[in-house]
Amino acid sequence: MLERWQDAVDQCAEQIASQPWSGNLGFIYTTDSHVDALAEIVPRLKDKTGIPHWVGTTGIGILRTGHEDYDQQAMTVMACGFPETSFRVFPAVQDDLDDFDHQHRGWFGDNIQNFAVVHAAPESPDLQQLIPDLSEMLNGGYLVGGLTSSRSRNLQIADTVTSGGVSGVLFSEKVPVCTGLTQGCSPIGPKRTITEVSRNIVLRIDGRPALEIFKEDIGETLAADLARTAGYIFAALPVVGSDTGDYLVRNIVGIDAENGLIAIGDLPQKGTQIMFCRRDGTTARDDLVRMLKQIKDRTSKAKPRGALYFSCLGRGRHTFGTNSEELGFIQEEFGDLPLVGFFANGEISHQRLYGYTGVLTMFL
């Protein structure tokens, strides 16, 4: 185990230097043990590798080809070589997209921007609105990424260390990619409709007390001991217009047994559809295999050159096992493909913020 962050950076730089080509963009993910050194890590990486642009963040766990690293000092990097005008790193965007538009308008005019890798600070206000707004700014561009996870400060990297909002890198159509999303929870009841709500507190579902519906759907055993539902049962909000049955998993953050209310980690509206779901290891494995085979089929004519994977903190060792089994499935399907990523506080795919999912992106 490397005890000094300088040693980790130098080892990464040596591995990059051994390659017969030079890169111009790097992805870096470190465990949160390195958070206090990030401001020194980034310039040292630039100096040692000659790669001018870096994006990334910290995670309570990080990912590399076939391996998951937790609870230790660890760092993973991937060097990429793209056409010089095909990407553009952008610093943190918080609430003023007008400034973002002004700063990048020239690049937008020269490129059809359709894809971005983004990292976000989980404490940022209005994040669930900022993500679709940013996608809309990119003419409906596809976003992939995740929310920083850390036991201390939440920091991101976009050429320099930053915090707050959303930062990352934009790609033009000159960079072909293939993405997929896999769910980690399975529905346990029918789609229902929220008929009365106050912010994140759901009062009535299908015209009945919300807690009554919740107990009905989870079954008698769990309904008799609601404490057992924590971390196991979640709310699911079906994505309107999805032809794949997609849904957003949200935590149940409170139950008011006296008044028959439940509180969820979102701000649904009256008329929003809702289901309840459970964390399910078998479903998670089956759906991961499905996604991998689907991506394999879609990339059969263009061999992937590298990959990014963003998985939920609730997956990995908590769902698949403690021996990097989740990353093992990917390696089994794609071999020793260069891959980096991290375990996130929330996953971003297209223009939505997910939970308990995995988001895989292949560079072709």
From TrEMBL:
The keyword Transmembrane helix applies. Pfam families: FIST, FIST_C. The keyword Membrane applies. Keywords: Cell membrane, Membrane, Transmembrane, Transmembrane helix. One of its GO terms (cellular component) is plasma membrane. It is found in: Cell membrane. InterPro entries: FIST_C, FIST_domain_N, UCP018953. It is a multi-pass membrane protein. Its main location: membrane. Residues 210-351 form the FIST C-domain domain. Residues 23-209 form the FIST domain. This is Histidine kinase. It comes from hydrothermal vent metagenome. The lineage of its organism: unclassified sequences, metagenomes, ecological metagenomes.
